[in-house]
Amino acid sequence: MSLNLASSPQPADKLEPFISLEQVVQWGGYRLTPSEVERLRRNIRTSTIPEVISEVVGGIVDDRTRVLAENLSSCLAPAELRGSLAAGHTPEKANAILGQISDLAGVRVICVWDHIDADGFGGHSNFYIEDNEDETILELSGDLRAWLTENPDSPDCPATSGNPSTWFGSAAAELTAEDIAHNDGLLNYALHDLR
Predict the structure, then answer these.
(1) Rounded CA gap, 110 and 161, in Å?
(2) What is the C-alpha separation between 112 and 176, in angstroms, rounded?
(3) How do beta strands 136-140 and 120-131 pair?
(4) Distance separating alpha carbons of residues 185 and 183, to the nearest angstrom
(5) What's the rounded Cα separation, in Å, for the pair 96 and 164?
(6) Which residues of the chain, if any, have pLDDT below 70?
């Protein structure tokens, strides 16, 4: 189990999402009592551990961006798709447009809807990147969303979709592959199955 910095109660052998009690014993050289574990938990919150983790994670993300920039095609999405979702979208339109972009860029851009019911996908929707390597759902970053959803005559609509390496945001904290298991086998997913 791991050390938890959150204020909510955690199991006794859980200290933080990244540090197990076994690691504390290995690194510190001693097994701690429950009151000492609580003291450690309080001290970690004000220590440099969060900054170190942030720095390491930042380096990992920088490496990911560098590798993506080196390996992904520098393709730009076809100009005729600019603003193509400005008036909204249907699941069919999302599959058609995101499918073109995904095929050209080698990046799986998906649409996640609130629900699927007898009438199909519905409710609010948002676009994400699906990283098939480790089944992580990532926030869509960069210019692609605005390039697709803003009116092309608007100053808010970017001139290009940007390089695909810029589309990879941070992991979507509220979404996992299990959370969006309801799908059409293409690029539409739903959080809730109401069928």
Answers:
(1) 16
(2) 11
(3) antiparallel
(4) 6
(5) 18
(6) 1-18, 64-76, 134
| φ, ψ of residue 48 in degrees (nearest 5) | -85, 0
From CA 37, how far away is CA 44, in angstroms rounded? Answer: 10
- Determine the Cα–Cα distance for residues 125 and 184; give it in Å rounded to an integer: 15
Residue 20, helix vs strand vs coil:
strand
Backbone CA torsion sign across 78, 79, 85, 90:
negative
Strands 109-117 and 188-193: parallel
Count Cβ neighbours within 10 Å for each residue of 114-138 and write b for 16 or more, e otherwise.
ebbeeeebeeebebbbbbeeeebbb
* Residue 53 near residue 61, CB atoms below 8 Å: no
Give the whole-angstrom CA distance, residue 57 versus residue 73: 25
Tally of residues, the chain: 195
Residue with tokens 């909204």: 88
Distance CA(190)–CA(160), nearest Å, equals 29
Q: What integer pLDDT is reported at residue 75 of this predicted model?
A: 63
Model pLDDT, residue 11: 47
Per-residue pLDDT tens digits for 81-91 = 999 999 999 99
